[in-house]
Amino acid sequence: MVLRLHEFPTEGDHVVGTVLDVKNFGAFVYLDEYEKEGFIHVAEVATGWIKYIRDHIREGQKIVCKVLRIDTSKGHIDLSLKQVNEHQRKEKIQEWKNEQKAEKLFEILAKDINRDVETCYKEFGHELIKTYGSLYGAFEGAAFEKKLSGENLKGNWVEHFIKVASDNIALPTVTISGIIEVSCPLPDGVVHVKDALIKAEKEEEDVKINIRYVGAPRYRIKVTAVDYKKAEKELAKAVDRTVNSIIKHNGNGTFYREGK
Fold first, then answer.
1. Is 245 exposed, middle or buried (CB count within 10 Å of its CB: 0-12, 13-18, 19+)?
2. Is residue 7 part of a domain?
3. Is residue 214 part of a domain?
4. For strand 76-80 and strand 36-41, is the pairing parallel, antiparallel, or unpaired?
C-alpha cells in the first residue's frame, strides 16, 4: 500500500471507489486510493429523474467519481458519479491500475535491496512521487530514460529501480509503414537488393525495423518507436540507407506511403 502524500483528494479530482452501501438518498463509497469514505447524493448519481437508485448504482461496484466538496474537519467528501464521462472513467481506471502495478513493483524493489516497503517510501518513494507525479510515472520514466531525474534521487537503490522498471514496464509505441521499391539491373542485382534491404534493418535502441516482401520490386517497411517523431526519423534514415546502397550498384530505390 502506498503511503499517501495527501490525506485527502483535491476538489475536482477523479477518484476510484467501491460502493459500500446504497440508500434511497444516495450511496456511500470507499475511496480505494485514500482509504476514506465519500458520499454521492442521489442527485449526483445520474442525470434526470431517478426512480430506483439501484438501477444506476449497486453495492460492490467499482466506480470513478468526481470530488465536489471536502470538509477535512468533519472528514466529509462529497462525490458525483454523473459528472464523469466515459473517457474520464477509462482514463482514471487505467491510471489506478498502473499505480497498483507500480506498488507491486515497488515491493519487488524493496525485497531486492533487503529493505521493508515502508522504509523505502520514507527514504526515496515519496521523492519519486513528488518528482514524477506518480509512482508509475517514475517507473515509466526510468524504463524509458534508463536513469532517474532529480537531485535527491540517488543511492545504491537506483540501479535496482531502473532494472525493475526496464524488466516490467512496456513502453507505449507507435508503428508507421510504407513501401520501398528496390531494383538493380546488374547480373548479381538480387544480391545487391538483398544487401540494401539488410542495411535498412539496422536498428537503434528502442526502435524496431521490419521489412517484408510484397511483390518484386516492392517491399513493405515498418518502423516501431516510442513516438511518431522518432519513428519518422528512423524510417527516413532506413530508406536513405537502402537507396544509397542500391544506387552505388546502378540500381533504383523509391519510397512512398501505402495508398499512394
1. buried
2. no
3. yes
4. parallel
pLDDT attached to residue 193: 95
In tens, the pLDDT along 129-162 reads: 989 989 999 999 999 888 998 888 999 999 999 9
Kindly tell me the number of DSSP H helices and DSSP E strands found in the chain.
7, 9
SS3 47: coil
| Cα(172)–Cα(168) distance, integer angstroms | 13
Q: Which residue has the cell 466538496?
A: 69
CATH number, residue 136? 1.10.150.190
Say how many domains are in the chain.
3
212 grid coordinates: 517484408
pTM above 0.85, yes or no: no
DSSP-assigned beta bridge partners for residue 253: 182
Asked whether the beta carbons of 175 and 116 are under 8 A apart, the reply is: no
Q: Taking residues 97-110, report their average pLDDT.
A: 95
Q: Do 91 and 161 share a structural domain?
A: yes
Report yes or no on 5 lying in a domain: no
pLDDT in tens, 2-50: 445 457 899 999 999 999 999 999 999 999 988 899 999 999 999 999 9
Whole domain around residue 73: which residue ranges? Answer: 14-84
> Is the Cα torsion angle 134, 142, 105, 169 positive or negative in sign?
positive
Q: Say if residue 228 is exposed, middle or buried (CB neighbours under 10 Å; 0-12, 13-18, 19+).
A: exposed
Strand-pair partners of 69: 78
Cell numbers representing residue 234 in the block: 528512423
